[in-house]
Amino acid sequence: MGYPGEKQKDQFIIGKRLDNFFSGVYDVYVFTKQFFKEVFLPPYEFQEIIRQCYDVGYRSLALISLTGFITGLVFTKQSRPSLAELGATSWLPGLIAIAIVRALAPLITALISAGKVGSNMGAELGSMRVTEQIDAMEVSATDPFKFLVVSRVVATTIMVPVLATYMCFIGLMGAFVNVHSNEQTSLIAFFQHGFASISFLDLFASVGKSVIFGFTIGLTGCYQGYNAAKGTQGVGKAANKAVVISMFLIFIEEMLIVQIVNAIRPV
Questions:
Q1: CA–CA separation, 81 vs 83, rounded Å?
Q2: For residue range 5-26, what is the model confidence (pLDDT) as tens digits?
Q3: pTM (2 decimals)?
Q4: b/e burial code for range 133-158 (CB count within 10 A of at least 16 → b)
Q5: Maximal C-alpha separation, the chain
Q6: What gap in Å lies between CA 59 and CA 36, rounded to an integer?
Q7: Which residues contact 66 (CB under 8 A, 6 or more apart)?
């Protein structure tokens, strides 16, 4: 038999890619199912969870603080000329509060965490897989999945909402600096006007989004690292995929959650 035709080659390549795609989806499903099974069963690795919360939360404070303050300051500065043309600069606190609480704080926090935390998890677990440390844990009395994966996913699920809430206040403080320097608005008046535009639905949606984002970052980073290919290149690919896939999923989740929240928001 001769070589297959170009059409047969294309069909073969497409079929192989579809097989790989659905195989990957199934592997993710099994990985996620195992997480939800392990997270509720003892023993509970509280000490490791606390250590991971420290790594995810406290070590990200400086970056979150700087980014949040600059975001609030720059967004306010850019919004001022448009409102000044309408003589509506008094709307700035409410506008900034809506933008930061509803979208900017949870989204930017999640993207920063995906780049910092997700890549770290992918590289750390990937290097442990390559150096066979995970295999060594499997033959010992330690459950590597519970110790390495469950603790990290729980930590990101807890700490990303905390960081997003913190970034809300830091971003509003950056906005206040700009508003105060132009209108001499007091801090109390700024926050009263700002939070008058925010509903409980906005707060719950912001926290809920952050929880989902944190879970996505932790699960994606751990999955890529835990299933990294052998060799040093596998570690780099695991870290890179953890960041890229996490960010892609975050944007998809943001779009879906916004549609759901707007559908239930009172007119």
A1: 6
A2: 666 666 667 777 777 777 878 8
A3: 0.89
A4: ebeebeeeeebbbbbbbbbbbbbbbb
A5: 84
A6: 27
A7: none
